[in-house]
Design a protein that fits this description.
The chain has a four-stranded mixed beta sheet with strand order 3-4-2-5. Strands 1-6-7 form a three-stranded parallel beta sheet, sandwiched between helices. β3 and β4 form a beta hairpin. It has 252 residues and is α/β, with parallel strands linked by helices. The structure holds adenosine-5'-diphosphate and magnesium ion (MG).
């Protein structure tokens, strides 16, 4: 899962990049868009296979077995990459407090024909959506920018993860969720501002900052509008190279 409790800190860019790079390496990959804003769904320009056939169908079903496979939609980017799309009304699921609802995503993904599943999380503090991801994931990648928002979002996310671990330990359940590290994206390399330098230093002090820092390139924003993969453009190469190096560190 790619997670932070701040918005605009490169979660979606990181999730989509890891998923696509893994797919290009030959791994059968499924990207789960768990954010009601549906940014990764829109970027990859995928439409649900039918009415209501988005991630909300998993979260709202008491018996979601097999749903992951059924909802995963093929993409034009790679034959190895499928997406479980999101939709606006997935945010209604935040009000769903049914017993064990937080285990539905995990159940839905069990046995899915994929080597890797990446979850693009919303920036919510805890809540059913985040809890669903925490229960389904085995690895967390935090996403941040070189800003105080980025640092705060990671700190909040780490507190939520620590609480999740405590609650699991209290009931004697095994904890298999590991923190792979923090990706720092969209970094302006040339003239770095004082707050940017200070934020990177704070991320470094956690001992979890993954290197290289991902550089800022305008093409990353441009491809969102055209539905393209930036890896197909020469201008995207520095960003692609950085995320490739990160994939080598976070995918076991
Ligand atoms: N390396 C980068 N260079 C330039 N812009 C970037 C880069 N990474 C992310 N962005 C832009 O920053 C904005 C926020 O990124 P996004 O991945 O959507 O964050 P989040 O999912 O945390 O809200 C988007 O407009 C995205 O295109
Ligand atoms: Mg996002």
């Amino acid at each position: 899962m790619v997670y932070s409790e701040s918005g605009g800190v490169t979660k979606t860019t990181t999730a989509v990049s890891i998923a696509m790079i893994a797919a290009e390496q030959g791994k059968r990959t499924v990207l789960v868009d768990l954010d009601p804003r549906a940014a990764s769904t829109k970027w990859l320009d995928v439409v649900p296979a039918g009415d209501g056939l988005h991630v909300g169908a998993i979260l709202g079903d008491e018996d979601p077995q097999g749903w992951g496979e059924d909802l995963a939609v093929r993409t034009a980017w790679s034959e190895n990459l499928r997406v479980i799309p999101s939709a606006r009304n997935v945010s209604n699921r935040e009000a769903d407090r049914a017993d064990h609802a937080e285990l539905r995503l995990r159940t839905a993904l069990e046995g899915i024909s994929a080597d890797l599943v990446i979850i693009d999380c919303p920036n919510r503090q805890g809540g059913p959506l985040t809890l669903s991801a925490l229960n389904a994931a085995d690895t967390i990648v935090y996403a941040s920018t070189a800003t105080s928002d980025g640092v705060d979002g990671v700190a909040g996310a780490r507190r939520t993860v620590a609480q999740f671990h405590h609650s699991r330990e209290r009931i004697g359940a095994p904890v298999t969720l590991t923190e792979a590290g923090i990706v720092c994206g969209g970094v302006r390399e040339t003239i770095m501002s004082r707050p940017a330098v200070a934020s990177i230093e704070e991320l470094r002090e956690t001992g979890m900052l993954l290197l290289p820092l991902v550089p800022e390139r305008a093409i990353i924003q441009e491809v969102r509008l055209t539905g393209d993969w930036y890896g197909n453009f020469r201008k995207g190469a520095p960003v692609l190279g950085a995320y490739q190096a990160i994939v080598d560190q976070v995918i076991r």
